[in-house]
Amino acid sequence: MAVGIFDSGLGGLTVLDAVQKRLPDVPFIYYGDNANTPYGVRDADDIFRLTKAAVEHLWDNGCDLVILACNTASAAALRRMQEGKVPHGKRVLGVFVPLIEALTERQWGDNSPPREVAIKHVALFATPATVSSRAFQRELAFRAIGVDVEAQACGGVVDAIEEGDMILAEALVRSHVDALKRKMPSPDAAVLGCTHYPLVADVFQKALGADVKVFSQADLVAESLADYLGRRPDMIGGGTSAFLTSGKPEKVSSRATQFLRREITFTAA
User: What is the pTM of this model?
Assistant: First the structure.
């Protein structure tokens, strides 16, 4: 069976690209809920409803393991889904875990008390829904002490990327970085807490300065997934890779091809 990759739109393609390069022999089914993007301005119940429906659609398409390649869905829906009824043999994972592991330099299963880490001042750039959930801060606090997190809700960036208006997206990034730096002038590190943001990672880095370490999730998720599948080979098997969308396939295919710089063909979910 294939591994499912879900995102509210096109941002999860950054994760898909990284995991395909890391795991070239694993089939993946990508599902973008482009008809309902962006999720970052929706309330938690709405995000949960949409995420649950998308994950169930991937299960129905033969994916026993689904990765929520969407920080908003991971923040607002993952825990609620995992605490609910997940069918036997199915798994749902999010994108926060590899990021927290990288920041705290400890494995997720390490349940020892929180301890000090090298990074003290973290700038978090995310969607309004991810910021309001405080999921990142909560998970970080379980594992590290003395870390100051300043969050910046980056309204409009996802919309601009989804519409292919990269000039607007870049201008919005610079504006949001300026707003963050007024609250935290000298962050040690920055977290790009949305899988759309790697598409403008260079703009974030330039606006923040070369001395700020920028954590982008795609490669971290790819390494984490490779480790997980190495321990759980039963979660992969036969299957064919595919791209599914709830939106208009022709339009989504064009945008995806532009972003990944290789031909991507979506079909209707």
Answer: 0.88
